[in-house]
Amino acid sequence: MSSLVPQLALAAAAVVCTRWLWTLISVRRILDNIPGPPSPSFWIAVPKPWLAGNFGQIYSVDGWAFHQQLAEKYGGVVRVDGLFGEKQLYAFDPKALHHVLLKDQDSFEAPIEFTRMQSVIFGEALVSSTGAQHRKQRKMFNPVFSAAHLRNMVPIFFGVGKKLRAAIEAKVKNGPKEVWMSRTALELVGQAGLGHSFDTLVEDAVPAYITSAQNMQITIFRMALPSRYILPWAVKIGGPKFRRFIVNITPWKDLHTARDIIDDLHQSAVNIYTAKKKALEAGDEAVAAQIAQGKDIISILMKDNSDASTKDRLSEAEILGQVYILSTAFRSRDPSLLVFASTDTTSAALARTLYLLAHNPDVQEKLRREINETQGDREDQDLTYDELTSKLPYLDAVCRESLRLHPPISFVSRTAQKDVVLPLSTPIVTVSGSTVSEVVVPAGINVLVSILASNRNEAVWGPDCLEFKPERWLSPLPQTVVDAPIPGVYSNLMTFIGGPRSCIGFKFSQLEMKVILSLLVGRFKFSLSDKDSEISWKMSSIAVPNVGSDSTPQLPMKVELV
């Protein structure tokens, strides 16, 4: 019998390979007729030797031109090539996206390699859960982001924002200074999300925690593609201790860096959760003594969870997972984390908005005038929640236009769980020359949902779609925008995506952004630095600015009092 084992193993391997090849050939036959860019080569050596096809172009940090080419040249659904000739679709057609994210949402899930990566990092968190568990977690979180709770967070946001404003004001006489947006965003989420302070925002030195959290984003992005093929089977090997042993002996620097950062961030999350739990158990007086006085997201969630039925209640591991997400500056390539505003995404959005205002001084001046007129002579009073959400139309327009033209995250992935037919708003011409108004997506195919191309779709937004024009939001939107079945949860935009994995905290993000802009633009004038020609925005997990060859995210700007 033992002599048959090698033969059986060989036969099983042959069956697996045959099925894989047959699937590959079948899918190629279906998708090869969809237009798309030529593959640089079947095997390519740049930027990494394991990449193939168009993946190196899609995931390049300098991939802006390639993504623009896909949007302009091939239509709303584009075929792209991956490893071993694997086919994927790059989509931004409104009707196709509507089906992927809403109408056929049960037929498309976040890729298994994505959820497993998030599970390794965050545990049983909203971003790593799927199916019934994901729906259960969202059900518990939805009330946390109600208008009543957000209203209570406004003073917290202003408290953090004023620290930043005071720090800039104290230094502005010494010349142009960098605005520490990453630090500010983490502190905002720390206090409003966790009732915990990470940073005084006063010291020049950046806290070690923030440095680790920022490095996480860069490290995970570098690991994204290889992990896609390694993680699905690696997480099934042995137990946690054995897998840890394998990680320790694997000669992969990025893996070891990620391990160390995850350990540090996990311990911080455990400490925050433990302190929060003790305060809640001690009663109202202990809660009131904490930062945010129990009005932060996690305190509200933990109180609501304790009152929930056994069926709806989240486990301690699930709550800890959300604390971990909120306490880390890492943002993955998906806006479905607990709060889109979690640190780096908000940092990127605020930095991009200030950069746009520096490039458009007339817009900046108009915004400053609106902010100061609304503030009036109430120097000692903060703008109210109602003023921020409904009395500052130009501030709202600037935020919407910035998030439309430059979404911090360019695309997300969804995998077809079964064969699906996607209808198209605009027919495409196939490789064979026929015109089709629908596309068959075989099971197992990844669809890259392009947030960037959807927000800049000329057929929807018009010929000025690539221009920064806040005024477009001050009058009725074009009928093409109104009629387009864009599935986004925010303003006909895909910035926060849509469907069951949309950003649950997008209103939190908007409020945070408006508070900081009102404080900074109302007091300071932002203009271009002497290094402006050296600034380039990198398409990492989140779009970040770099100066020259320095890979450290930074955006030097001239700041002066007005």
UniProtKB/TrEMBL annotation:
Its main location: membrane. Heme binds at residue 503. Belongs to the cytochrome P450 family. It comes from Mycena venus. PANTHER family: CYTOCHROME P450, CYTOCHROME P450 12A4, MITOCHONDRIAL-RELATED. Pathway: Secondary metabolite biosynthesis; terpenoid biosynthesis. It comes from the Eukaryota. This is Cytochrome P450. GO terms for molecular function: heme binding; iron ion binding; monooxygenase activity; oxidoreductase activity, acting on paired donors, with incorporation or reduction of molecular oxygen. One of its GO terms (cellular component) is membrane. Keywords: Heme, Iron, Membrane, Metal-binding, Monooxygenase, Oxidoreductase, Transmembrane, Transmembrane helix. Signal peptide: none annotated. Its cofactor is heme. InterPro entries: Cyt_P450, Cyt_P450_E_grp-I, Cyt_P450_sf, Cytochrome_P450_monoxygenase. Coiled coil: none annotated. CDD domains: CYP_FUM15-like (cd11069). It is found in: Membrane. Gene3D superfamilies: Cytochrome P450.
